[in-house]
UniProtKB/TrEMBL annotation, chain A:
The keyword Oxidoreductase applies. GO terms for cellular component: branched-chain alpha-ketoacid dehydrogenase complex; mitochondrial matrix. Residues 37-212 form the Transketolase-like pyrimidine-binding domain. GO terms for biological process: branched-chain amino acid catabolic process; response to nutrient. Keywords: Mitochondrion, Oxidoreductase, Transit peptide. It comes from Brassica napus. The gene is BnaC03g70580D. This is 3-methyl-2-oxobutanoate dehydrogenase (2-methylpropanoyl-transferring). It is an enzyme of class 1 (oxidoreductase). SUPFAM superfamilies: Thiamin diphosphate-binding fold (THDP-binding) (SSF52518), TK C-terminal domain-like (SSF52922). It is found in: Mitochondrion matrix. Heterotetramer of alpha and beta chains.
UniProtKB/TrEMBL annotation, chain B:
It comes from Brassica napus (Rape). This is 3-methyl-2-oxobutanoate dehydrogenase (2-methylpropanoyl-transferring). Residues 136-431 form the Dehydrogenase E1 component domain. Residues 58-77 are annotated as: Disordered. GO terms for cellular component: branched-chain alpha-ketoacid dehydrogenase complex; mitochondrial matrix. GO terms for molecular function: branched-chain 2-oxo acid dehydrogenase activity; metal ion binding. Belongs to the BCKDHA family. Residues 60-70 have a biased composition (Polar residues). The keyword Hydrolase does not apply. It comes from the Eukaryota.
Length: 362, 472
């Protein structure tokens, strides 16, 4: 219930540091100017900077010219011209294929897939081409300049085709990187890192947070490193691992658990492929318990990879089975969304986070 | 404005007559625009005869037989406004037929006997160029034969030949400049051969030895060479087509005097990436030459099972792309068509589609026995009577540029060189084991470092479980 309220009834301002949590980005603030921005504005800023700092960079996809259906590309075409920022035909395999070609010639191609639910026509180009471009050519060619951005995740009313979290499909592909930011400040830094990383990156943006999340974002050009997880809340009794919008939900679960005397350590994975095993391992060796949560369906979800790895590395330190609080094994439903979602109450009720009397299995 | 033109014919015609308002009514322009060719410097003079002149008439866009039958109704001169522009209207309900009454004819210069058809439009080819083209076609034949045999002997794991398609391979390559970026499908090693890839380099890739630029990661024939502007072959069909559009666009943005050139078979045109590639190239106005080798077969699938259109050339117009059908077994026709298409692509910054008609004489690959699905007679016919190499040879010989002595010298020396290359490649050191883990990313990631350490330990512990020769 609390999770429903927080999702639907008020603007989601990310909690400050009052409870020792750092949902907001921990990028050093210092004396540089910051501005209160939502997620799509932070992404927009990153794109402006990317195009400004590299004249051989391009942004394209369906409807990006006028600013994009989520406004992430506002002002780019006007500022950098239609040669560098342009609409493409409605064809995801073409968008990614074209982007691979541009990147293979040494350019940076930041392509947009309108929502992650529509990324599948491009799956062949991503898996068979982009991911293997460098390896199969013996490093004679590469398309490292390719970054694929896609809004993902639940939005409250998205149903089957505007709510999907397809990250697990991509985490199974050696040769690409998968990055998912949790907040505006994180998104700007991670997106700039992804664009400048010499490998093709799939960058999933939690669309729920485009307008809902507001944060102080530094105005300058900064990057947040890939493949480095962050402990955004320190604790000693249990480790929670998540990414993207789900961290806000888990944050609430942590607060609830704290009331019952359970000290939670919350980790933002940020990069799912290649993922920072060391940070999670160190945390679980300290706490002895692990709970992973993601919106994507539980079976075959990325939580399974984290669970298996941590079991291998921390088996003797674990005091309880690894818990996964995830979406159900159904297509993402419309009217049933509140039941489908891995809410904070489901997390709180899971065996890891609650006292034995309140245990439920999800 | 649409309402204006929706009025009755009588009103319009009376307006026309009485008020001289014909200027308002936009006459439909039936002729296709003719491209304007200006004199320009060609970037590469190496393969071009300095005295080359062009027969521009042949390269002009022909007005295609209109798919919509003309009517003389005045209605047609009136037009409606829609988002895509103005379009005439008719009250006569007529469907565009599924096919034209006549198939698009095929451009050809040499007849089957190697004689130039009189009044042919074509770009003259010098002796030097012609001899080189012939030599390379013959070399490709010998290479295909010997590598195929090597596979049969178990020395390499796989091979596929370009038998029957030597003219497409060599003549197209000869018509390009070295700066043109080639994105092949997989039956175009002749393009790489033309550009200077050596027989040894081909052999190294087939054997996946330490000298293979691809570092032994892919099956034989998956050649690639950045030095020769030839993108590495990948098995998935047609994926290179939208990439070629991106490459062409990159060249356009860099204002290079170069284009992207990409190849596809008849079967590959059924893939979604064919549609994606052509549409993107057209919309982005990218300099790309799409060359479709219509060789009649996609493994065992005949073209009658592949599409219902008049081949591939008619699909070009659907994307707003200029297209031509050419006799792919006629080296001179292929040369002229590709050369012209390339110039159009670069000077006009637009894509061009070439459908080269040919026949796949060989099996699809060493994993295929095509006698299982087609008549041996058919294969034999194409091999003997419609052989592109023999046809070009006749023309070159008739010009006095090639003799039987030259022929036997070339074939025996090429054969010898190939056998030596294969022997050397076979003996060459293997790739070090670390190359299994490199280049997945630009820098080896932690998980790969761990896996490499683990694998090395395992191999050292149980070497009998693993093939020898891979240096740890």
């Amino acid at each position: 219930m609390a999770s429903l309220l927080s999702r639907f009834c008020r603007k989601l301002a990310l909690p400050g540091s009052a409870h020792g949590s750092r949902m907001t980005s921990t990028t050093a603030c210092g004396s540089e100017t910051v501005k209160s921005l939502n997620l799509y504005s932070a992404i927009n800023q990153a794109l402006h900077i990317a195009l400004e700092t590299d004249p051989r960079s391009y942004v394209f996809g369906e409807d990006v010219g006028f600013g994009g259906v989520f406004r992430c590309t506002t002002g780019l075409a006007e500022r950098f011209g239609k040669n560098r920022v342009f609409n493409t035909p409605l064809c995801e395999q073409g968008i990614v294929g074209f982007g691979i070609g541009l990147a293979a010639m040494g350019n940076r191609a930041v392509v947009e897939i309108q929502v992650a639910d529509y990324i599948y026509p491009a799956f062949d180009q991503i898996v068979n081409e982009a991911a293997k471009f460098r390896y199969r050519s013996g490093n004679q060619f590469n398309c490292g300049g390719l970054t694929i951005r896609a809004p993902y995740g639940a939005v409250g009313h998205g149903g089957h085709y505007h709510s999907q979290s397809p990250e697990a499909f991509f985490c199974h592909v050696p040769g690409i990187k998968v990055v998912i930011p949790r907040s505006p400040r994180e998104a700007k830094g991670l997106l700039l890192s992804s664009i400048r990383d010499p490998n093709p990156v799939v960058f999933f943006e939690p669309k729920w947070l485009y307008r809902q999340a507001v944060e102080e974002v530094p105005e300058h050009d900064y990057m947040i490193p890939l493949s480095q997880a962050e402990i955004i809340r320190e604790g000693s009794d249990i480790t929670l691992v998540g990414w993207g919008a789900q961290l806000t939900v888990m944050e609430q679960a942590c607060l609830d658990a704290e009331k019952e005397g359970i000290s939670c350590e919350l980790i933002d994975l940020k990069t799912l492929l290649p993922w920072d095993k060391e940070t999670v391992e160190a945390s679980v060796k300290k706490t002895g318990r692990l709970l992973i949560s993601h919106e994507a369906p539980i079976t075959g979800g990325f939580g399974a990879e984290i669970s298996a790895t941590i079991l291998e590395r921390c088996f003797l330190k674990l005091e309880a089975p690894v818990s996964r609080v995830c979406g159900l094994d159904t297509p993402f439903p419309l009217v049933f969304e509140p039941f489908y979602m891995p809410t904070k109450n489901k997390a709180s009720s899971s065996s890891s986070l609650s006292s034995p009397s309140k245990t439920h299995i999800f | 404005m649409a309402m204006w033109f929706a009025r009755s014919r009588n009103l319009v015609s009376s307006l026309r007559q009485n008020l001289g308002l014909s200027a308002i009514l936009i006459k439909r322009n039936h002729s296709s625009p003719r491209p304007v060719f200006t004199n320009y410097e060609l970037s590469s003079k190496v393969f071009l005869d300095p005295s080359t002149s062009f027969r521009h008439e042949s390269t002009a866009v022909e007005s295609q037989p209109d798919l919509v039958q003309q009517s003389d109704h005045e209605d047609d001169a009136q037009e409606l406004d829609f988002p895509g522009g103005k379009v005439g209207y008719t009250s006569e309900m007529k469907f565009i037929p599924e096919s034209s009454s006549r198939r698009i004819p095929c451009y050809r210069v040499l007849n089957e006997h190697g004689k130039i058809i009189s009044d042919s439009d074509f770009i003259p080819v010098s002796e030097k160029l012609a001899v080189r083209m012939y030599e390379q076609m013959a070399t490709l034949q010998v290479m295909d034969h010997i590598f195929y045999e090597a596979q049969r002997q178990g020395r390499i794991s796989f091979y596929l030949t370009s038998v029957g398609e030597e003219a497409i391979n060599i003549a197209s390559a000869a018509a390009l400049s070295p700066e043109d970026v080639v994105l092949p499908q997989y039956r175009e090693p002749g393009v790489l051969l033309w550009r200077g890839f050596t027989l040894e380099e081909f052999a190294n890739q087939c054997f996946g030895n330490k000298a293979d630029y691809g570092k032994g990661r892919q099956m034989p024939i998956h050649y690639g060479s950045n030095q020769h502007n030839y993108f590495t072959v990948s098995s998935p069909i047609a994926t290179q087509l939208p990439q070629a559009a991106g490459v062409g666009y990159a060249l356009k943005m860099e204002k290079k005097n170069a284009c992207a050139v990409t190849f596809i078979g008849d079967g590959g045109t059924s893939e979604g990436d064919f549609h994606a590639g052509l549409n993107f190239a057209a919309v982005m106005e990218a300099p790309v030459v799409f060359i479709c080798r219509n060789n009649g077969w996609a493994i065992s699938t005949h073209i009658s099972e592949q599409f219902r259109s008049d081949g591939i050339v008619v699909k070009g117009q659907a994307y707003g792309i200029r297209s031509i059908r050419v006799d792919g077994n006629d080296a001179l026709a292929v040369y002229s068509a590709v050369r012209s298409a390339r110039e159009m692509a670069v000077t006009e910054q637009r894509p061009v589609l070439i459908e080269a008609m040919t026949y796949r004489v060989g099996h699809h690959s060493t994993s295929d026995d095509s006698t299982k699905y087609r008549e041996a007679d058919e294969i034999q016919y194409w091999k003997m009577s419609r052989n592109p190499v023999n046809r070009f040879k006749k023309w070159v010989q008739d010009n006095g540029w090639w003799s039987e002595e030259d022929e036997s010298k070339l074939r025996s020396s090429t054969r010898k060189q190939l056998l030596q290359a294969i022997q050397a490649a076979e003996k060459w050191e293997k790739q070090p084991l670390t190359e299994l883990f490199n280049d997945v990313y630009d820098v080896k990631t932690k998980n790969l470092e761990e896996q490499e350490v683990g694998l090395k330990a395992l191999v050292e512990k149980q070497p009998q479980d693993y093939p020898t020769g891979f240096h740890i």
